[in-house]
Amino acid sequence: MINSKESYSKFIKSEAKRLGFLSCGISKAGFLEKEAPRLENWLNNNYNGQMAYMANHFDKRLDPTLLVDDAKSVVSLLLNYYPSETQNPDSYKISKYAYGQDYHFVIREKLNEFLFSIQQNIGEVSGRAFVDSAPVLDKAWAAKSGLGWIGKNSNLLTQKTGSFYFIAELIIDLDLEYDHAVTDHCGSCTACLDACPTQAIVAPYVVDGSKCISYFTIELKDNIPMEMKGKFDDWAFGCDVCQDVCPWNRFSKPHDEPLLNANSELLSMSKKDWIEITEETFKKVFKDSPLKRSKFNGLQRNILFLE
Description:
Pfam families: Fer4_16 (PF13484), QueG_DUF1730 (PF08331). Pathway: tRNA modification; tRNA-queuosine biosynthesis. By secondary structure, the protein is an alpha+beta fold. It folds into 2 domains: 5-83 and 101-172, no CATH class; 191-242 and 262-306, no CATH class. It has helices spanning 5-18, 35-44, 58-62, 103-122, 138-144, 191-195, 213-219, 241-244, 264-268, 271-276, 279-285, 295-306; strands at residues 23-28, 73-80, 93-94, 127-130, 149-150, 156-157, 165-172, 201-203, 206-207, 235-237. A 4-stranded antiparallel sheet has the order 1-2-7-4, with helices on both faces. It has a two-stranded parallel sheet with strand order 3-10.
């Protein structure tokens, strides 16, 4: 059995690598003081739009010790999803994270194995795994543990690999050695603010979620407001514009996770194919895909809006 904070931390980071994670950082579980006023202001400005769930569990979002009994450490993990191939240029655009299988299932399986391995090698450790499905401020914890800084587009950025990755956590009741935040390297760059088709980045580091193309095409259940007509740049599910223009994403390298490999049918589809897709075909081709989230009717609504 491993038996010191230093060796626990080394083991956890080596296991993260073995499981295919891009990087792993560790921070002390506790109240996120700096994030509290930011989150409050963001909600007061109604930047969450119809995402009412963002206002729920305010205290839990800021303090993981309220989510996990006796939580001591937040282990933050990044999983690369940058694809080696992209879509047919004559197509409605799908966000790159949705090219393969639904990441929730892919990552959850890795996290379950990760927690089991920690318990097998370190001993009685309790905790919970989180993949974008509970009130955890993923980006804040990843930044706190030194995995990158939160950029002007509000995404986590890293110098070596950009921002095309998923963020996940294990929150556990084990004291570990803690990492430190890195400095911001956005400098005077405003590429993301200048490129956003709907001006959703209302100020550096502040995104009005209710103006984001990803919000309109995935989260919004009502009709898309007509004042957005012609502003979507052919995005039918999600949007990658603020990441595509970010200079740090010049360093993105293709992932090596087979389950996230691009669906070949999705890559080859033309605009005509998207317009003509039937519900039966949609269910068959995208049965394990993040596209299921918008459902067939939601995708149809988005495509009609783009025409």
